[in-house]
Write a sequence for this structure.
């Protein structure tokens, strides 16, 4: 059971990164490859707030969310808006991710920094397995974010507008949706989410300048497994990737962990090319 | 007319060759009675630990120069130190080294950077017949056939591993589990550790690898725990060390852990909470392998002297494990006394003399044991200590 808790919590982190990818994808049909780095910055800001400045947890959470939202807004203005072509955006956001890695290294160094978790760092036994409080918190948080976003997208006007944009951007524009502004707001919201979760992710992984690179690829794999644009898909994808890594490391060896994950990805894409939760649409040509 | 032209050109070419030959005799720009020029390469403006290590290396070179000059210089020549910031980048290192040689050939080059810098600069040093010492080893840097004038100062993974079996025996560990990273060093370390321990009659019950980009090592730890080893030998640096310690604590596994020198180099374990884990339950079973010179309790008087000399110049930003340049200068001074010359070939020959190596007042390692077959440092088990983590102060663990 210890393996399952570990795998699920790691899967939850990947899923949270994939949710950030999805928010941007739904609103603008593009990927922000720097999203994992935004989560990393959130972890560093949390470290500064909690350890260096000794601020209350609530203040630090808000501070991290606001700081990363601002960084995301700047990224959108510099790396997204001036670039028209979607393929070029992949390159510019990748550039932004490298820039953020470098800034983090220069600001906080390359050594791992401990981000304390508000509910304690003592491992305990649950259902026959051992886990840290933050691991269970991450699992619960991933589920809650997906549920909350699901409700928001169906019950609020903004959510419906975003879904409309995802279906047909031009039709949404004709119905009076300020597509550009909505895409910007979605980008900033994804940044705020990355800052918010950064504190909890950092409690499990430390705040370290290699964190973004470690999360980016796995987050993308989770997205591909679940289906681009599907929020529940991120949970299923995260669970599969997290558990596959844990069990492959335990019974085959650490060198087979990535191999197992990509084997699952290839198998799923062969059976369902659009991912588990997204249907392939026919187009009239 | 044509024949005369050939004769003139031939004559000029001959003169040029003679001049070049004469220039080759000279051991450096300073000449026999001039200053002995030492060039130190280091990534002073690199990022994070690389910069700290480079600054410590340069500081040790400055301290070494002061000591050597105070005791008569090298073969009577005053040592002049020049520092080149290569940013730990091979391209920058090559450009700056070529520029420096063009201005005047140095007598000695101390390369404080990583292996990539050594790989790029060694061919230039060989081409110019310059004596050099190197911290980051490469595949051929210590091979006298490939680089006859270069000497490697750092201990190999094998040197470090050879110190483990006597410690196992002392502690009564008969069954060993190994956990190592997927980096090239980690893989070499894992394979060499298994071979060394097997050869020493120690039962290696598990040898597991983790991906250095992974965020959780609990699965590998559980696999090793299932084999019930007496002790866990760990190769880890940076965040992976934190994940391993968290994993062991999560499993509630009460096993002695011996970390290698990479573990000792991670600041997480030499820093108290809330930034680090020093003094927490995560480190209660951990000991780490260090040079005796980097442990305050076990170091020799020469080390205390080195620390004092370095502190007089500046603060010591990282461990003394990279303060080899002090020793390099002491070795060259002893070699020059023996050879009665500063000719690089004669110095290289003298450096192989065990008497010279013992005569040199070195601090980081007691004796380097260079040989005609290998110009790599070959420290014995007595040069290593296994200590509990402690705060890092003035380059030593306390």
């Amino acid at each position: 059971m210890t393996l399952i808790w570990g795998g699920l919590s790691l899967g939850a982190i990947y899923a949270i990164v994939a949710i950030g990818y999805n928010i941007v994808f739904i609103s603008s049909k593009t990927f922000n490859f720097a999203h994992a780095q935004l989560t990393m910055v959130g972890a560093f800001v949390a470290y500064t707030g909690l350890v260096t400045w000794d601020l209350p947890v609530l203040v630090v959470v808000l501070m991290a969310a606001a700081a990363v939202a601002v960084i995301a807004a700047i990224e959108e203005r510099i790396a997204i808006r001036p670039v028209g072509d979607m393929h070029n955006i992949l390159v510019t956001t990748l550039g932004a991710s490298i820039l953020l890695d470098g800034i983090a290294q220069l600001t906080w160094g390359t050594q791992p920094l401990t981000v304390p978790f508000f509910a304690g760092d003592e491992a305990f036994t649950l259902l026959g397995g051992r886990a840290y409080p933050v691991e269970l918190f991450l699992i619960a948080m991933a589920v809650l974010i997906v549920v909350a976003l699901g409700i928001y997208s169906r019950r609020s006007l903004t959510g419906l507008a975003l879904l409309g944009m995802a279906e047909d951007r031009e039709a949404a524009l004709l119905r009076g949706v300020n597509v550009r502004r909505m895409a910007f707001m979605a980008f900033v919201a994804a940044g705020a989410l990355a800052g918010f979760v950064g504190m909890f992710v950092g409690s499990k992984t430390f705040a370290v300048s290699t964190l973004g690179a470690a999360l980016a690829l796995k987050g993308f794999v989770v997205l591909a497994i679940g289906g681009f644009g599907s929020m529940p898909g991120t949970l299923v994808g995260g669970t599969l990737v997290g558990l596959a890594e844990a069990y492959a490391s335990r019974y085959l060896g650490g060198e087979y962990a990535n191999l197992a994950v990509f084997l699952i990805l290839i198998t799923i894409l062969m059976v369902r090319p659009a991912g588990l939760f997204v249907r392939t649409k026919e187009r009239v040509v | 007319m044509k024949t005369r032209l050939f004769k003139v050109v031939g004559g000029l070419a001959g003169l040029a060759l003679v001049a070049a030959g004469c220039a080759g005799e000279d051991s450096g720009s300073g000449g026999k009675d001039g200053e002995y020029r030492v060039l130190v390469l280091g990534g002073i403006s690199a990022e994070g630990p690389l910069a700290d290590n480079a600054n410590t290396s340069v500081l040790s070179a400055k301290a070494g120069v002061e000591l050597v000059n105070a005791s008569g210089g090298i073969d009577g020549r005053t040592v002049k130190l020049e520092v080149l910031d290569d940013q730990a980048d091979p391209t920058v290192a090559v450009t700056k080294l070529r520029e420096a040689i063009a201005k005047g050939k140095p007598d000695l080059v101390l390369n404080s950077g990583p292996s990539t810098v050594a790989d790029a600069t060694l061919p230039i040093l060989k081409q110019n017949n310059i004596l050099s010492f190197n911290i980051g080893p490469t595949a051929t840097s210590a091979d006298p056939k490939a680089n006859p004038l270069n000497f490697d100062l750092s201990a190999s993974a094998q040197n470090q591993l050879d110190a483990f079996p006597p410690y196992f025996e002392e502690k009564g560990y008969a069954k060993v589990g190994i956990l190592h990273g997927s980096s090239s060093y980690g893989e070499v370390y894992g394979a060499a550790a298994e071979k060394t321990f097997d050869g020493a009659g120690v039962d290696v019950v598990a040898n597991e690898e983790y991906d250095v980009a992974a965020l959780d090592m609990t699965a590998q730890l559980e696999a090793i725990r299932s084999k019930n080893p007496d002790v866990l030998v760990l190769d880890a640096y940076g965040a992976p060390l934190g994940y391993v310690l968290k994993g062991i604590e999560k499993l509630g596994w009460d096993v002695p852990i011996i970390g290698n020198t990479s573990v000792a180099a991670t600041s997480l374990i030499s820093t108290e909470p809330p930034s680090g884990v020093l003094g927490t339950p995560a480190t209660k079973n951990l000991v780490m392998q260090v040079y005796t010179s980097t442990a305050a309790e076990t170091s020799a008087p020469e080390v205390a002297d080195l620390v004092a000399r370095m502190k007089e110049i500046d603060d010591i930003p990282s461990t003394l494990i990279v303060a080899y340049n002090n020793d390099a200068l002491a070795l060259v001074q002893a070699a020059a006394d023996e050879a009665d010359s500063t000719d690089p070939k004669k110095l290289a020959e003298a450096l192989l003399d065990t008497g010279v190596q013992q005569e040199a007042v070195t601090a980081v390692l007691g004796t380097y044991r260079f040989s005609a077959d290998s110009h790599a440092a070959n420290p014995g088990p007595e040069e290593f200590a296994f200590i509990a983590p402690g705060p890092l102060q003035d380059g030593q663990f306390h």
Observations:
- Chain A is about 75% helix and 0% strand.
- Chain A has a mean pLDDT of 88.
